[in-house]
Amino acid sequence: MKEGFVKNGERLSLFSLCLFLLSFPQSVSVSQIFAGLTIATTYPLLYFRKEYREDWKRIQSFFLIFLGIYLLALLSSLIQAESYQPFFKKFIKQSEFGDFWMLLVLPASYLIVSQEKNQRILKNFLYASAVIAILLGCISLFSEVRIGKFVSNGFRYAPGDRLQHFSGNLGPIKLYLPIGMMNTHLTFGGLLGLILPGLLLDWFRKWKENKNILFYARTALLAAGWIVLFFNQSRSIWLGVVVLLVVALLHGTFSLKKNLPNFSTKTKLMAGLLFLAVLLSATYLFRNNWLIQRSISQIFEVHNTENQRYYIYKNTIPLIQDHTWIGVGGGNYKDSHWKESSKMIEGQEQLWYELYITPRGHAHNDLLHFIAVGGIFAGILFLWFWWKLFDGFFQKRPDEIGSLSILTIGIFSLFSAGFFQCYLLDDEVLLPFFVFCGIFLGGLRNPSLPSKTENTFEDSKTLSQLPIFRKIFLKTAAAVGLPLLFYWLFWIPRLNLKPLDVYNRRVRASDLNLVKTVQKNILKFESSQILNQDFDSNLNVTQASLPFQVEGCLTHRYPNPPVPRVIPFSFEIYVPENATNVPKKARITIVSRDSFNQDQLYWAQGETDLETIEVTLKPGKNEILIPNSLLHTYPKEFPDGVFFRDFRISYLDFEKEGKVDFPKLYFGKICDAVIPQTQ
User: Fold this and answer.
1) 484 with 578, same domain?
2) Which of 49, 73, 95, 265 fits a disulfide with 331 by CB distance 3.0 to 4.6 angstroms?
3) Which residues contact 218 (CB under 8 A, 6 or more apart)?
4) Mean pLDDT rounded to a whole number for the chain
């Protein structure tokens, strides 16, 4: 009876894990059900089988380290709780500790993979989950509607559902930001980061084998996956995957020299032509896809409208400084961060909306977030977890790493990617991450290998092994330390900037070059030297005459509840005095726009044109006063009943064709350039 119970338990646990692998690219809710079944059917086996208890000893350190992070967040919250009754209600709903149960799947998946008879089945299901994820990504690349929402609505589009982000055109075909069945492109990017590196390395290992239809199918799947990841534009995952592949290459996990055969001259010529075709295609896509242009250009820009990470980090660091040892506590990050943001708004009121829509649910950096909520020791445990993962990887020679570990090696991409996004706080990524960790570590422990290489996680370093230990230690230190070092080298200069230096008003226009030119010519400070600044642009008259809409200011003032603004909206247009080709007129339309957070509500902001005026521009400063756009209401809470007053501007009557001298705009602090606001 006992033996029958164990066998049935093993079958059920394997079956549940396989169903999880099929479901996580499709639905987080369904995958959580199968993860729960995996946990419920695996842990009882510890009581009945000694070998499972032995396997538990090998994985328990990984489990306990991450559990320690959650416990520190809980302890910090308990210490700082004012009342324990509402505390537990808030803590369970908002705290990182709510992810604790997901951690249980890490040992469970490890115990299942440790049974060699299960490994071939799991490998097939890993490929099946990759096929599902990539196929859904390909469908969403061409789908205007969000697939997940479409399916949940009974395979129909419900009015009001937010559509996909338009990406660009491929000839007559419209392309969209691929998100599979997930809610955000970052979540789907995280899943691709888990899946694609393993597919690539496994493909390299099979390069010299006989080429059959299965190999070419895998090649097509791999190519489609990388195309989807490219269009997905999760730049943090791009970075994480690149770092992982560099680490794998240096470790010798895949070798170009060993895996690539000698090619004939004809094959080399065909490969060269193929590479040229890919290069030309990439150039075409870059020129015709504004989202890709924006994603790549912003990697090298300090000042851009995607500057929310600056505000997140800028207001997280004071939390760490004030709560270094115990953190602010689980579930308290959002409120604590808003208190710091409020101080910034009091100094620069024009940042109110920008800081309001800045996500405050987490720190957009896994390490930074765990330190903020659990204190410095939570950060140490987090780095220790990754250290042990890398150490386990480097302890194995490349030829000793099994195919299951190769297929799940994508877990390492989330280390570097996690410095720019909290992937390990996203349920849709965290749950498969823990499963992949268990499979990866279980695959490293290969019973078919000689016993001297089997002891992956135990510290059995003798004197004769010290040189090997030193080499592994240095590799692990580099893999963990260098991404952390480069991250801070990248961010420290940016965090030293003042908040207003980073802020840019949003500009919309049909021409991307016009958008960049307008943003470059919006002044943040008024100066007597403005007219001596450079007004040159690379725009021609046709481009410069196109209308562009500049983000204006709010109809109400801080704090919350908001109070109505009493001073009329105004701004200034500076026209160079000695220029040869400037506009003589400007047509300005005042636009009323909603101020709710459309990224949070998945709803587009509405707009209404209020009035249009036409002004004559003279050389020097031109004051534009808008007297009729105030709103005398008293909303109960921001942003309800609060609107933007944007400005759609067209420059008219340029003196001649050719390059133009583009005017500069100055909005003052809160669109009060002509009549300054008083506090």
Assistant:
1) no
2) 95
3) 127, 199, 202, 203, 206
4) 86
Mean pLDDT of 541-561: 94
SS3 content of the chain, % helix, strand, coil (to 5): 60, 15, 30
Nearest to 331 by CA among 97, 659, 654: 97
Q: How far apart are CA 189 and CA 418, in angstroms?
A: 12
Three-state DSSP at 46 gives helix
Structural domain contains residue 80: yes
Judge contact between 193 and 237, C-beta under 8 A. yes
The answer to whether residues 518 and 484 belong to one domain is no
- pLDDT at 671 > cutoff 50: yes
Q: Tokens for 574, please give them.
A: 């500076």
Count of domains observed in the chain? 2
Indicate if the pLDDT at residue 142 is higher than 60: yes
Are 558 and 621 contacting, i.e. CB atoms less than 8 angstroms apart?
Answer: no
Q: Quick one: 73 exposed, middle or buried, by C-beta within 10 A (0-12, 13-18, 19+)?
A: buried
Most confident of 13-27, 44-58, 249-263, 596-610: 13-27
Residue 396 near residue 455 (C-beta atoms within 8 A): no
Task: Name the β-bridge partners of 645.
Answer: 553, 592
The whole-angstrom separation of Cα 235 and Cα 453 is 37
pLDDT of residue 580: 82
Examine the pLDDT at 466 and tell me if it is beyond 90: no
Structure-model confidence comparison of residues 103 and 162, the more confident one: 103
Percent above pLDDT 90 for the chain: 55
Element holding 47 (H helix, E strand): helix 45-48
Task: Give 452's pLDDT tier (boundaries 50, 70, 90).
Answer: very low
Tell me if 187 sits within 8 A of 181, measured CB to CB: no
Contact 673, 570 (CB under 8 A): yes
Q: In this predicted structure, what is the pLDDT of residue 303? A: 47
Question: Residue 534 — φ and ψ, nearest 5°?
Answer: -75, 125
Compare 597 and 431 and report the one with higher pLDDT.
431
Residue 404 amino acid letter: L
Q: What is the DSSP string of 613-653?
A: EEEE--SEEEEEEETT-------SSTTTT-EEEEEEEEEEE
**Residue 395 CA: distances (Å) to CA of 2, 336, 387, 444:** 37, 42, 12, 10
Q: Kindly state the DSSP code that residue 157 receives in the 8-state scheme.
A: P
Assess contact for 555 and 349: CB atoms under 8 A.
no
CA separation (Å) from 59 to 42, 104, 135, 346?
14, 11, 34, 50
Range of the domain at 650: 506-666
Q: What is the mean pLDDT of residues 307-322?
A: 92
On whether both 77 and 206 belong to a single domain, the answer is: yes
CA 303 to chain centre: 19
DSSP assignment letter at 351: G
Q: Is 352 inside a domain boundary?
A: no
CA distances from 248 to 327, 346, 396, 397, 443 (A): 35, 49, 12, 11, 16
